[in-house]
Structure formats: structure tokens, C-alpha cells
Design brief:
Blueprint lengths: L7 H10 L6 H13 L4 E5 L5 H7 L6 E6 L2 H14 L5 E5 L14 E6 L6 H8 L3 E9 L16 H19 L3 E6 L5 E6 L4
Parallel strand pairs: 1-2, 1-4, 2-3, 4-5
Antiparallel strand pairs: 5-7, 6-7
Bound molecules: S-adenosyl-L-homocysteine and magnesium ion.
């Protein structure tokens, strides 16, 4: 897949400040999905510096993103980037902790939920925000491979092992969920693509 970097300055900032941003392959995959499935309303958990959100809205003028971020430094940088690049005002930045953010301040008919915040909390975000999706909405979770770090590596810290354990639990929970169908895409840092099962 061909990838064209629309925001080289934001990417440069991310590299210099070690800000975690989505990897090119996964981004290209999601942008293709947005186009193909005619996704219009996106809820993103974890804005960082608004790199992914700006790429999502670049797919088309009818794509709208609500995105939640709690970190002050990120919010400041995201605000700058949105001011500079989001000319059609397609992005709304919601400031606060996504585990507590008032649901009423958001929409209730999203086509896509993109979970990309604290990795140990993905299941909590899923449960909290899935009710805001349309019936045939899609949930995408990033960093399912967590940089390829293995849980069996004896040299990793206890904190890291706990987090990997949580990602693994989330993974298994998704796979075994009776109402959802999940497949994993081994691009970038690993994406989980989840859809509600169709009732027959
Ligand atoms: N989606 C961005 C990257 C997000 S990095 C991109 O690809 O460009 C993850 C972000 O989630 C960090 O900025 C972190 O501050 C934020 N975050 C983590 N836990 C959060 C929470 N509970 N509520 C809101 N933001 C959170
Ligand atoms: Mg990510």
C-alpha cells in the first residue's frame, strides 16, 4: 500500500518528542476502510497530537472526528495542529479522562470507534463507548502487538508484564465475545477489527 505523509511536521515532532503515533501501515489500512465503508462519524480515544485524527479527516470532507485526550501537553500540541490543518473544522477535541468523560457531550451514532489510549484500559473504553456506535459500527483497537514485546521475556519489568497480560486478556475477551466478531490485522503495531455479529 502506498502511503503519503500529509503532515511531515507533525511526524517530525512526534519522532523528536517520542510521542506515540499510529504506524503508517495501520493508518493506511484504516483510511482505506473509512473510504470503503463510507465511515462518516468517528470517535477516537487518545488524541495525542492529533496526527491520526487529521489523517482520518483527510479522507473526505464528510468525515467528522470526536477525539478525547487527557494529557495537557498533548492537548496543547493537538490544539495547535488542529488550528493549523483542520481548515473545515472536522475535528472536535474533548479534553478529559476518557474513563470519566461525560457521555452526553458526545454523539450517539458513530460509525467507527478507534481505541488508542492507555493500553491496559482498552476493554474499559470498549465497554464505555460501544453503546455510542451505530448498529453496524466498527471498533478498531491499536497496539494489540505492543511493539512486539513478548510476555515471556524474562527481562521485562513487572509493570510491563502486567500491561501485556491486560492486552492478552482483552484479546481473548474480544475473541470469545458472543456478540462481536473480531479479526486481527498484523500491520503496524497490530490492529483488532471488531464488528457486531448480525442477528439472524
Ligand atoms: N491516536 C494518536 C496516538 C494516541 S497515543 C495517533 O495515532 O496519532 C495515546 C494517547 O492516549 C496519549 O496521548 C495519552 O495521553 C492518551 N490517554 C491515555 N489514557 C487516556 C485516558 N484515560 N483518557 C484520555 N486520554 C488518554
Ligand atoms: Mg496507537
Amino acid at each position: 500500500m502506498e502511503f503519503y505523509e500529509l503532515y511531515p511536521n507533525i511526524k517530525k515532532y512526534a519522532l523528536e518528542h517520542k510521542t506515540p503515533i499510529i504506524m503508517e501501515d495501520s493508518l493506511e489500512y484504516i483510511k482505506t476502510l473509512i473510504k470503503k465503508e463510507k465511515v462518516q462519524k468517528i470517535l477516537e480515544i487518545g488524541t495525542a497530537i492529533s496526527y491520526s485524527a487529521l489523517h482520518f479527516v483527510s479522507v473526505g470532507e464528510d468525515v467528522l472526528v470526536d477525539t478525547i485526550e487527557r494529557n495537557e501537553v498533548m492537548i496543547e500540541e493537538a490544539t495547535k495542529n488542529i488550528q493549523e490543518y483542520d481548515n473545515k473544522k472536522q475535528i472536535t477535541l474533548h479534553k478529559g479522562d476518557a474513563l470519566e468523560y461525560p457521555i452526553e457531550a458526545l454523539g450517539k451514532d458513530y460509525d467507527l470507534l478507534f481505541i488508542d489510549a492507555a493500553k491496559a484500559q482498552s476493554q474499559k473504553f470498549f465497554l464505555r463507548y460501544v453503546p455510542l456506535l451505530k448498529e453496524n459500527g466498527i471498533i478498531i483497537t491499536d497496539n494489540m502487538n505492543f511493539h512486539g514485546v513478548s510476555i515471556d521475556d524474562p527481562n521485562i519489568s513487572r509493570n510491563l508484564r502486567n500491561m501485556l497480560k491486560k492486552i492478552q486478556n482483552y484479546n481473548e475477551w474480544l475473541i470469545n465475545h458472543p456478540d462481536y466478531e473480531t479479526h486481527f490485522v498484523d500491520l503496524g503495531d497490530g490492529l483488532a477489527i471488531t464488528r457486531r455479529k448480525k442477528c439472524s
